[in-house]
Amino acid sequence: MNGGEDSTRTDTRTPAPVEKPVALTVAGSDSGGGAGVQADLKTIEAHDAFGTSAVTAVTAQHTRGVESTHVLPAAEVAAQLDAVTDDFDVRAAKTGMLATAEIVELVADRAAAADFPVVVDPVMVATSGDRLLDAAAEDAYADLVSEATLVTPNADEAAVLTGVEVGGRECAVEVGERLLATGADAALVTGGHVPDPSEGPGETVRDMLVTPDGTRTFERPRIDTDATHGSGCALSAAIAARLARGESVPEAVEASAAFAARAVRYHLDVGEGPGAVHHAVEVRNRAAREATAEAVRGVVREFVEADVSALVPEVGTNVVGATPYAESVGETAAVEGRITRTFSGVKPNRDVRFGASSHVARFLLACREFDPDLRFAANCRFDSDVAAALERLNWPVAEYDRGSEPEGVKEREGSTMQWGARRAFEAARSADGESSGDGTPVAVVDRGEVGKEAMTKVVARDGEELAERVLALSEAL
Q1: Which CATH number goes with the domain that contains 311?
Q2: Among 153, 310, 380, 383, which one has the highest count of C-beta atoms within 10 angstroms of its own C-beta?
Q3: CA gap 287, 281 in Å, rounded
Q4: Whole-model pTM?
């Protein structure tokens, strides 16, 4: 015997291969990693597909711009395409920077012979407005677009492809219909290039999807940032990855547009320029769900141990935690049924789950529009005693008056929470012009109205900070 060891033991493990659909990107290389092939491969992987590539050009660039470009011979691009398609079961492809008429024609021929969907991102015009292709290459795009499952021009590129200047919804639809008439299966006119004349300039970003079945509009508030380099690459790569996974064009576009908006809002602060879009933003957000829920449980345990009964309102208290890049109620964890008072203290009615809170979650999400670092909130009682305690703590406190709520807010937004948070933070930011704070209050007071209990909402950047603040308020009572 060998000391009781199992004689059948082996030092090798059984392999466990994972199957993933394969997506192909045909685009230029971006040494800065924010756009091009690098952005495409990051995005494809983040959308649970396996990324392959055919590089059309090598660029020396960073977050401030392009230093130089070297275009590969079309024969080398063809060799890469052959290498990938001969070995991999490619389920979808996308194009980016194609550089020359010869490469555009090559890719158009391959797209015509492909048995998988092809997303054409016509990289033709720089952000500065400069044309990136010569006239021959622009003309060659007509054949490529005709083979596209989806073509995704912005307004400048749409004007090159169709001759139509996009100046509103009707123009965008006309662009889409003209692209369909050339042979494309669908067209997505992207970004903030489709203004609504009835609004102020640039308040809303619209993507217009035009298919033979009709038109769909995807809207979102504009994000005030210059860190948009590579957002078009990320959008088209996400669509290609989702098509490779078997989604329909409308499904893939809707999900990918939401992803691209989140990737821009929570961009990465790298380099000396505006930064780079966050290609893995949704993966990181999903990965933080369990840690967020556990942080909420930790706050609840502290509330129970400290017995915060004096702060629990009639409707109960809830503790809400948002994932780092949360944009919806479903991405916030809270106590199902809230925390209520008992004869022996306080207790949660049930466990923590995502989407369990409505009012406090909406309030927190609205606060994050002003300070995205805020991730936790709890609602507490408010009366004259709490007001005195807040004054003793000398916290920055904001409030809103429900009597000032404009007509129709509840109908449009579902509750007063978002409007109230905006009013409170706008007031706090205005007052902060005369102080040394950052304009983010620790607590927001809602004095209520008939049928609506007055409330104090405490906000924080993490669960530990939220627990400390609520317990400090409890002790100050």
Answers
A1: 3.40.225.10
A2: 153
A3: 10
A4: 0.89
